[in-house]
């Protein structure tokens, strides 16, 4: 699966793949594979990116066009 939204979100903030790779603590080449759909993105990286971009994982995955994230669940 090709994640155009990963690239779009990154481009919207004028960030490089290396900037995002640094946030995820991975090499730029690995992040590039995520954007191109060559390598599956691990759940922990998907969650980190959703938090960083202040959006939902569903938006990144193309399951919704609603960019605004869902309300957080209050935990006891």
The residue ranges in which pLDDT falls below 50 over 5 or more consecutive positions are none
End-to-end Cα distance, whole Å, is 36 Å
- Which homologous superfamily in CATH is the superfamily? lambda repressor-like DNA-binding domains
The overall average pLDDT, rounded, is 92
Beta strand count: 0
Strand count, sense and barrel status of the largest sheet are: none
> Class, according to the CATH hierarchy?
Mainly Alpha
CATH architecture: Orthogonal Bundle
Helix content: 40-55%
Number of helices: 5
Number of domains: 1
**Structural class computed from helices and strand pairing:** mainly alpha
Fraction of residues in β-strands? under 5%
The outline comes out as globular
Radius of gyration: 12 Å
As for the CATH topology, it is 434 Repressor (Amino-terminal Domain)
What series of H and E elements makes up the topology? HHHHH
Q: Could you describe the 3D structure shown?
A:
The chain has one domain (4-60): lambda repressor-like DNA-binding domains (434 Repressor (Amino-terminal Domain), Orthogonal Bundle), CATH 1.10.260. It is mainly α. Helix content is 54%, strand content 0%.
